[in-house]
Amino acid sequence: MIRTQHHSIERRITRRRYLAGVGGGFLAWASRMAPRLLAGRATGRARHCIVLWMNGGPSQFETFDPKPGRPTGGETRSISTSVPGVAISEFLPSIAKQADKLAILRCLHSPEGEHERAQYLLHTGYPLVPAFPRPALGAMVSHERGTGGIPHYVTLGGPGYGAAFLGPDHAAFSIEEPGEVRRLLTALDRRRSELTLLRQLEQPFVAAHADEAVAARRARIEQLQAMLGSPFVRALDWQREPKQVRSRYGESLFGRACLVARRLIEAGVAFVEIMHDGWDTHADNHRLTQRLCQEIDNPWSQLLEDLDARGLLDETLVVWLGEFGRTPTINGRAGRDHFPRAIPVVMAGGGIRVGQVVGQTNADGTELAGVRYGVPDLFATLLDRMGIPPDRQYTTAFGSPTQATDEGHPIAELSSS
């Protein structure tokens, strides 16, 4: 199903609450003619961005910073990768073969160890201040691309975050089931004449009530008409792909989302976020993380391979991350708790300098060792790769100037130019 994200971004929405909240939401949205639609063209080397969001906070010890043989390492062993001297968790064998396409960041830290605040920070680059909402990264990318016929900030499997002072047209266009959304949009496309009639019937009212809400409604109807029949709708139909391609991605929700994300990028969408839930492993961390890694390993690898084979990887920034890492100490329930002092992040494409590890933790993973970067620096790097100056000035709804990042600077080791 589908819904559009509003300004409220102060509460954490679990997968169950999200599904409950949007049941029937698309039909209500369509009847109100109120999608969040946008389009335009890219600026800068990376024209697109795909974020693989690991909701709950993935353990670095069981993914990209294993510590085999150390007291903190647990049962996880490491394996070699396609980059000499770089090892990652045994749970990611397909991604290990793609390491020459990856930049692994082991030195990102954050002050936020609580889910709601950490999720907000890793989506906006700013700490949560309810009185001063900040736009999500996807909303900033959408704002740069302009408005038009297709959404430029799309989320698959999760609600996404709002656009704050950038306006509701740049909030997340959230999709739970791509096939259902495609069918509903296709059905609506067959009723284009009714949309045209609606515009004609409301014209006298629009002329007599020239306020912001009426203008916004009129704009949304026009945007909906522009999207119907567009490549965006066709991209949602993942079954158009050859059977052998679909089988490579697999039948899981994450696998299908990765395939749809690739198709959306090909259709011109600028920013896609895929949410994969379940990484809050306070208990039974080893077994749960092994299963979670198995769910993402092959689809993620196939996404990178497909983008590369189609000549899209260099212009598509692919980012894997969650809200924080997990503690070096294994608790009494065989789990790991929240650890924002070391957040695993992996990037590919988009002009990022790959085939390397940036930064390190100490032998037991209890602290960062050497160079370290904050979340604003990560955001500055991503914006820079997307052709958006990290110090871009915006004007808030109450007339105050503010920057795209919280005084972040691009990470030099990741820049290829």
Summarize the structure.
The protein has 417 residues and is of the alpha/beta class.
Distinctive features:
417 residues, alpha/beta, Alkaline Phosphatase, subunit A, 2 domains, ten-stranded mixed β-sheet, two-stranded antiparallel sheet, 13 helices, 35% helix, globular, disordered N terminus
Tally of contiguous helical segments: 13
- Any idea what the CATH architecture of the largest domain is? 3-Layer(aba) Sandwich
**Mean pLDDT score:** 85
Radius of gyration: 21 Å
CATH superfamily of the largest domain: Alkaline Phosphatase, subunit A
Structural class: alpha/beta
Shape: globular
For the largest beta-sheet, the strand count, sense and barrel status come to:
10 strands, mixed
- Low-confidence stretches are 1-44
- According to CATH, the fold-level topology of the largest domain is Alkaline Phosphatase, subunit A
Helix coverage percent: 25-40%
CATH top-level class of the largest domain: Alpha Beta
Structure summary, number of beta strands: 18
Task: Outline the secondary-structure elements.
Blueprint: E1 2-4, H1 15-22, H2 25-32, E2 48-54, E3 78-80, E4 87-89, H3 93-96, E5 102-109, H4 115-124, H5 137-145, E6 153-156, E7 173-175, H6 178-189, H7 192-208, H8 212-227, H9 231-235, H10 243-249, H11 253-266, E8 271-276, H12 285-309, E9 316-321, E10 325-326, E11 338-339, E12 343-348, E13 356-358, E14 360-361, E15 368-369, E16 373-374, H13 375-385, E17 393-395, E18 401-403
Helix pairs in contact: 7-8, 11-12
Kindly describe this structure.
It is built from 13 helices and 18 strands. It is globular, with a radius of gyration of 21 Å. The protein has two domains: 12-190 and 231-414, Alkaline Phosphatase, subunit A; 195-229, no CATH class. By secondary structure, it is of the alpha/beta class.
